[in-house]
Amino acid sequence: MTQDIIIATAALFGMLSVIFGAFGAHALKKTLSAEQLQSFEVGVKYQMYHAIVLLVLGFNYTNLSPAIYWCFTIGILLFSFSIYGLVLSDSRGKKLRFLGPITPIGGLLLVIGWLLLLINAF
Known about the structure:
- The protein has 122 residues and is mostly helical.
- It has one domain.
- The protein has helices at 3-26, 34-59, 66-91, 102-121.
- Helix 2 packs antiparallel against helix 3.
- The radius of gyration is 15 Å and the shape is elongated.
């Protein structure tokens, strides 16, 4: 993984989290329940947290295992985007239940990314 790809991925995820956060706070505030809005915000927060981590890793790129990048990237996609899909589909009355098991897989990948980062530090 090159430094430029890591930084670009971080920038894309960061930008999208701002867009999704604003969308949730303004457009969805009127259509989602408080619980749904809170779930949506969890997806946005975790996406931004991990975008920042990718950005820091990209700017401090030295001997970074590509597995760390992939765990964070795929973890964000599976965790946050499955939450967005679950919340939005539920608000329309057609909850995409197949997304439910995908969220914890994404969360597990995020945890593995952190574990690999820890191992990489030593």
